[in-house]
Amino acid sequence: xVKGLSEPVxxxxxQWGISHIFAQNEKDLFFAQGFNVARDRLFQLEIWxxxxxxxxxxxQGSKALKRDIGSRLLKARVDxxxxxxxxxxxxxxxxxxxxxxxxxxxDITNKNPGxxxxxxxxxxxxxxxxTPEVVVSRHNGLFRNAGYEIAFAQSVNVxxxxxxxxxxxxxxxxxxxxxxxxxxxxxxxxxILELYYASRARVRFGPExxxxxxxxxxxxxxxxxxxxxxxxxxxxxxxxYAYQKLSCPLFVPPSLATQLHHEMNLGSNNWVVR
Length: 274
Known about the structure:
single chain; mainly alpha; Penicillin Amidohydrolase, domain 1; 2 domains; two-stranded antiparallel ribbon; two-stranded antiparallel sheet; 12 helices; Penicillin_amidase_dom1; Ntn_hydrolases_N; hydrolase activity, acting on carbon-nitrogen (but not peptide) bonds, in linear amides
């Protein structure tokens, strides 16, 4: 039994790869959900964690600096107990249980790095532990329309509130576009949302993010990836050398992609039913 559970839990994957979790109590249920999602999507979780904590520059250098500054600037600074209980009446128990499950699987990968997804050794990473703050971080919040709000404010400044209102289709409501007294819309610069957009930009990795292929595997904290047959038809010594021969280190042959398309369907392990 995985350390952290109070009673046995069963996770069954059906023919579509969807996980069905059977637990004896709520804490174990959400612990198992966290463990399961980490087992299935650990690299995705690591990127989410870094986006939420503003630590992408640790792995991408200066090109991610503005992203991190924006993420830290816009970080929700709230009472965590109150915040978690907004999500669920027992949120202060459910969310930490989910986090402990994620971290339990991460601890297992620390002891057995061979369980890590390919992206980790390619980028020279180890996954970091989650906290409840990461779970409730604002990746998509009520500020998502911030760009529109700024555009409206700048338009009011240039055209005036009434003229802009005449140009826009705002029915069935009749909102006032006049700014409050003391607000100078002329102070809103075109780049005021630079850090906001940087924090929400899609994370992209390029060849420069892959660790130096001359770096010897046995000097890495990760075990050798092993002999792998790639679409080149040759058995490569490791994925780093293979990366140099392929346009994408995660290349999937068309025949395999077609097969996977027929055998699998989109699903999610982000939901559990009690």
